[in-house]
Amino acid sequence: MNQTLDLLLQVDEAKLIKPRREVEIKRLSESVGQKVVFTCEAITPAKMAEIQEMVMDVRKQEVDIPEMQLMTVLAGVKEPNLKSTELLDKFKAPTPKELLLRLLLPGEIQSLYNIISELSGYGEKAVEEVKN
What we know:
Elements: H1 3-10, E1 20-24, H2 26-32, E2 37-41, H3 45-55, E3 56-57, E4 62-63, H4 65-76, E5 77-79, H5 85-90, H6 96-103, H7 106-119
Antiparallel strand pairs: 1-2, 2-5, 3-4
Helix pairs in contact: 3-4, 4-7
């Protein structure tokens, strides 16, 4: 049998964890005088497909990139809880999406999106060619 197949058959699915990374939002840290850390996690293929479907303009056959970034950040940020009623009330935001728009700058949203995308397997470091 193929060596890779043998290895994959040995994988304990319960031990397949999604990659996580903690990142500091420096501007917010400076505002409060302490580190403001967001925990980002990879999203599943199903969640990515759902987001892509939500942000696709079928008539124009194009993706709303800023909307895709927002939805990916909402799905991939695990801490703080962006659905927290207290946080939503504090910033008078009716939805988690509106909270992000009030809390973060566009470049911060894009940076979080890039981190979540990388954790989700996008980027040059995810797969490497094997040289014989």
